[in-house]
Specification:
- The chain has one helix and nine strands; from the N terminus they run βββββαββββ.
- It is mostly beta strands and about 150 residues long.
- It has one domain: Roll (Pnp Oxidase, Chain A), CATH 2.30.110.
- Strands 1, 2, 5, 6, 7, 8 and 9 form a seven-stranded antiparallel sheet that branches.
- β6 and β7 form a beta hairpin.
- The longest helix has 10 residues.
- One of its GO terms (molecular function) is structural molecule activity.
- This is Phage tail protein.
- InterPro entries: CHP02241 (IPR011747), Phage_T4_Gp19 (IPR010667).
- It comes from Paracoccus salipaludis.
Length: about 150
C-alpha cells in the first residue's frame, strides 16, 4: 500500500490595514482621528572597549527613548483636546494612559493594542486654513509618554 503524503499549504497572515484604527483617551469622547504616526522606541547602545590585546568594542543596552506620537484629527467644536493641552501650558500636566487599537477587517473587532502610559500633550498645531481649499481642517497634537506596551 503506497504511503500518502498530506501537504498543508499554510496561508500567509493577512497584513492589517493602516486605516482601521481607533484611539482611547480618557476624558476625550469625540476625537475624530485621521492619522497616528511616530510610534516607536529606541534603546541607545552603550559602547565600551574590552580590555586586553584585541581592542574589541562591545555594546550594552542603555537608556530607553520613546518617540513622541503625533495625532492628527478633524477640527470639531469640542475643546477636550485643546483643554488638555492648555493644562500643560499652564503647568498642570495631566498624564493619561492612551490606547491605540488596530481593528480587524470588520472595522470593529480589536486585534492589536498599544498602550502609552503617562502620556501628556507636548505640542499642538492648528489646522492650516486655505480660502481656496476644500479639505477637512485637521489639527495636530503630539504626545510624550513614559512607557509603551503592545498587547
Amino acid at each position: 500500500m503506497p504511503e500518502t503524503q498530506t501537504t498543508q499549504t499554510a496561508q500567509a497572515p493577512d497584513p492589517m490595514r493602516n486605516f482601521q484604527f481607533r484611539l482611547e483617551i480618557p476624558g476625550v469622547a469625540r476625537g475624530h482621528f485621521t492619522e497616528v504616526s511616530g510610534l516607536g522606541v529606541r534603546v541607545h547602545p552603550i559602547r565600551y572597549r574590552e580590555g586586553g590585546i584585541g581592542q574589541i568594542v562591545r555594546t550594552l543596552p542603555g537608556p530607553v527613548d520613546y518617540s513622541e506620537v503625533t495625532l492628527r484629527y478633524g477640527l470639531i467644536r469640542d475643546a477636550e483636546l485643546w483643554n488638555w493641552m492648555q493644562g500643560t501650558i499652564q503647568g498642570r500636566v495631566e498624564r493619561r494612559n492612551v490606547s491605540i487599537m488596530m481593528l480587524e477587517t470588520d472595522g470593529t473587532t480589536e486585534s492589536l493594542r498599544w498602550n502609552l502610559f503617562n502620556a501628556w500633550p507636548c505640542e499642538w498645531q492648528g489646522a492650516p486654513l486655505d480660502a481656496l481649499g476644500r479639505d477637512v481642517a485637521v489639527e495636530l497634537l503630539r504626545l510624550s509618554f513614559d512607557q509603551l506596551e503592545r498587547v
